[in-house]
Design goal:
By secondary structure, the protein is an alpha/beta fold. The protein contains twelve helices and ten strands. The longest helix is centred in the first third of the chain and has 16 residues. The chain starts with 6 loop residues before the first strand and ends in a 10-residue tail after the last helix. About 35% of the residues are buried. It binds 4-(N,N-dimethylamino)cinnamoyl-COA.
Length: about 260
């Protein structure tokens, strides 16, 4: 789980820290990065000792988008037959919570990757944008749908049609990010948030993630039913008994992810 070329993986207690590590190319996302990220997060989902992950980028960027040099020569049939970049759907389907700690440029596929995560904590020096229009294309990794759901049509059209960048503070104001923090405190805040979440029971974290994610896709009555079934199911866990007993006994809960 540590033998990667384009990313780094560290484990800090129940928190995984995954860093996109092509700083000379501003962490541009090529096929190798995608495969390594997908493999790494599949391993995190299988690892019983990890509850939460933080995804960040080395150097000046979170990720400055898909690798333009890799994409430039490709034809329609290359893209279509290989289903280029479809692997990112597997990352988006990760079952444990993922926090994007956005340290710099999050452009194009980099902004879309951040939006696949569950929380986005941004540095005030971060730069978000969907500049694909300047390359003669459009968002292709879910940006048109996830961005529009996050910030609404008016702001999404502005970003997608002009390709302009916004900073972390504007991204916070329009609802694209969960929190914006001073640049120097980014990793401290992101890891503290991850540790706070990692103290909870993994089955309830997975259920919470799944229900909020489905809320964006389901009609209200179906979403409420889906939430209720997951909520009811958690009464089959030992951690529900422990969490509620600990409350009554005025002591901290000791969860076992069971
Ligand atoms: N791809 C490849 N290399 C990149 C890159 C990228 N996206 N972004 C930066 N680099 C490289 C630069 O080429 C440069 O490399 P060298 O020339 O030194 O070899 C190095 O990183 C440093 O960049 P700059 O010299 O340009 O640095 P500056 O500070 O001057 O400018 C910048 C920073 C972020 C403003 C600029 O680098 C920039 O505009 N980068 C491109 C941003 C961009 O357009 N991003 C969107 C890419 S398109 C798909 C799904 C999704 C996608 C595609 C397909 N399918 C499902 C099929 C996604 C598409 C995209 O994301």
């Amino acid at each position: 789980m540590t033998d990667y070329k384009t990313i780094t993986f560290e484990q800090k207690g129940r928190v995984a820290l995954v860093t996109l590590n092509r700083p000379d190319a501003l962490n541009a996302l090529n096929a190798e990065v995608m495969q390594e990220v997908v493999d790494c997060f599949a391993a995190i989902d299988r690892n019983k000792d990890i509850a939460v992950s933080v995804l960040t980028g080395a150097g000046r960027a979170f990720a400055a988008g898909a690798d333009i040099k890799e994409m430039q020569p490709q034809s329609f049939s290359d893209m279509y037959v290989e289903d280029y970049f479809a692997g990112w759907d597997r990352f988006a389907a990760s079952r444990k919570p993922v926090i994007a700690a956005v340290n710099g440029f999050a452009l194009g596929g980099g902004c879309e990757l951040a939006m696949m995560c569950d929380l986005i904590i941004a540095s005030d020096k971060a730069k978000f944008g969907q500049p694909e229009i300047k390359l003669g294309v459009t968002p292709g990794m879910g940006g048109s749908i996830r961005l529009t759901k996050a910030v609404g049509k008016a702001k999404a059209m502005d970003l997608v049609l002009t390709g302009r960048m916004i900073d972390g503070t504007e991204a916070d104001r329009i609802g694209l990010v969960s929190r914006v923090v001073p640049h120097d405190t980014l990793m401290e805040v992101a890891l503290a948030a991850a540790e706070e979440i990692a103290a909870f029971s993994v089955p309830s974290l997975m259920a919470a993630k799944e229900m909020v994610a489905r809320a964006l896709e389901l009609p209200t009555t179906e979403g409420v039913k889906f939430e209720r079934r997951l909520f009811q199911g958690l009464f089959g866990t030992a951690d529900q008994k422990e969490g509620m007993s600990a409350f009554s006994e005025k002591r901290p809960a000791k969860f076992e992810d069971k």
